[in-house]
Design a protein that fits this description.
Blueprint (H helix, E strand, L loop, with lengths): L3 E3 L18 E2 L7 E3 L5 E5 L14 H4 L9 E7 L7 E11 L6 E6 L17 E8 L2 E4 L2 E7 L3 E7 L3 H20 L32 H8 L3 E2 L3 E2 L2 E2 L11 E5 L7 E7 L9 E7 L1 E10 L2 H5 L5 E3 L10 E7 L12 H17 L5 H10 L3 E6 L7 E7 L22 E2 L6
Parallel strand pairs: 1-4, 3-5
Antiparallel strand pairs: 2-12, 4-18, 5-16, 6-15, 6-18, 7-8, 7-17, 8-9, 8-23, 9-10, 11-14, 11-16, 13-14, 15-19, 16-17, 20-22, 21-22
Helix pairs in contact: 5-6
């Protein structure tokens, strides 16, 4: 086992860790706390993305009341010897897994529409929660019966620090989007949250900011411009790509000396799109990785975004039931080549299908958010309809979900759901 270079205590708050504190903002001045040579394997540990706000219990209010200003909590930053702006940081994901000696569960949540909402929040406005047991790489849930499978474990979030110039570019363009939306909410039409004017970006805020081991006098000023970790950007970030699993190699653009790499938001499994938002099976975890450099790789290869080579580790599913969606809303409104609307329709078709097998809508939503479903943009050229597909692996179920095998008498219970106002 590689030596642990960043260790966490799952029973302590993120800002009271026995070792270096994690960080939850992107800023070039957050100091590195780990030094790495190329070709030297190391182990990093990370808290779950909420920093321990969700427990192994039957209380759905924890999801409803999550403080979203705090997330995510990343291991690092790691300074890689010899990394310079313009390089590509090659990161091999050698191994990863749950912290079974300290935290043997994962969780999935549907956020309240009052607290973040999500992809289908207009259909599922109330907070919900499911707890998953982690048996090695195999997952199952007392809240979603008759589902058991090997998950595709991966970090939802990984990347390098931005330069000051890149940080300012992010803030400027995202603020322009916020201003445009405030002036004309109808101009941003791909956000069907059920609200009249939902947020379209998360600007910098000092509230909940954890700036790693930055000097306290400098941390607050830096937090005023530091980027939230919520979206992916050119440096990497919150991609939530399920295929970045064991054996994968990722090439991250380097924007600052030493790269200042960070990683976290680990998932025991996830479906394409992470459509539950607090989706996937979230957990505290470790990752073993190794660094190398492609000098001047950004210019040599013509890239300024991450690229990756997926690993070979499973699970490998061969049989699927696949659902189609098109650019027409549930109300019958025609959109033009809109893959977002099309994937919503495919997801809703799958949910309705699973309800016929005895699952509630929330249970079906959590299945699609956690199981390694395959989402595809199958057609984006045939006007007016994009075609998106959602392939649901048959092998995750302990019964046959093929058409013609309905058992309408089945009652598979429900998740933990709250209809209380936001606490």
């Amino acid at each position: 086992m590689p030596e642990v270079q960043f260790e966490v205590d799952v029973d302590s708050p993120p800002d009271e860790q026995p070792g270096p504190n994690p960080f939850n903002r992107w800023h070039p001045d957050i100091p590195a706390v780990v030094e790495a040579d190329t070709g030297e394997p190391m182990r990093l540990e990370a808290l779950d993305w909420t920093g321990g706000q969700i427990g192994d219990n039957d209380n759905a209010n924890e999801v409803r009341d999550v403080d979203l200003t705090q997330v995510h909590y990343l291991a690092g930053p790691v300074r890689v010897e010899g990394a310079e702006p313009g390089d590509l940081l090659k990161v091999d994901f050698l191994d990863m897994g749950p912290l079974n000696d300290r935290s043997e569960f994962g969780f999935t949540g549907t956020f309240s529409q009052q607290n973040g909402g999500g992809f289908l929040t207009d259909h599922f406005p109330n907070a919900a929660k499911s707890i998953w047991d982690l048996d090695g790489y195999t997952v199952s849930s007392r809240h979603v019966p008759d589902v058991r499978y090997q998950g595709k474990i991966h970090p939802g979030l990984a990347g390098c620090a931005p330069s000051q110039e890149l940080l300012e570019e992010w803030n400027e363009r995202e603020q322009e989007l916020i201003d445009k939306h405030e002036e004309d909410p109808e101009s941003i039409h791909n956000h069907p949250t059920g609200e009249s004017n939902p947020p379209v970006a998360n600007p910098p805020t000092t509230e909940g900011a954890l700036m790693g081991e930055m000097d306290p006098e400098d941390a607050e000023a830096a937090a005023e411009e530091a980027a939230r970790t919520v979206p992916p950007r050119e440096h990497g970030g919150n991609h939530d790509i399920k295929d970045l699993s064991i054996g994968s190699t990722v090439y991250f653009p380097v924007y600052v000396d030493g790269a200042k790499f960070g990683v976290g938001d680990f998932h025991a499994s996830q479906g394409d799109g992470e459509i539950t938002f607090c989706g996937a099976i979230e957990m505290a975890a470790y990752i073993d990785l190794e660094f190398d450099l492609v000098k001047d790789g950004m210019e040599k290869h013509g890239v300024d975004h991450p690229i990756f080579e997926p690993g070979n580790r499973g699970p490998t599913f061969e049989n699927f039931v696949t659902f189609c969606g098109y650019s027409v809303t549930e109300e019958g409104e025609q959109h033009y080549i809109d893959s977002h609307v099309a994937y919503r329709r495919a997801s809703l078709q799958a949910i309705e299908y699973l309800k016929k097998f005895g699952y509630t809508g929330q249970q079906a939503l959590h299945i699609l958010g956690t199981a390694p479903i395959e989402g595809r943009q199958s057609g984006v050229v045939d006007v007016p309809n994009a075609c998106s597909t959602l392939a649901l692996p048959k092998g995750i179920f302990e019964f046959d979900i093929s058409p013609g095998n309905l058992d309408e008498s089945s009652d598979r219970g429900d998740l933990l759901v709250t209809d209380d106002p936001l606490g």
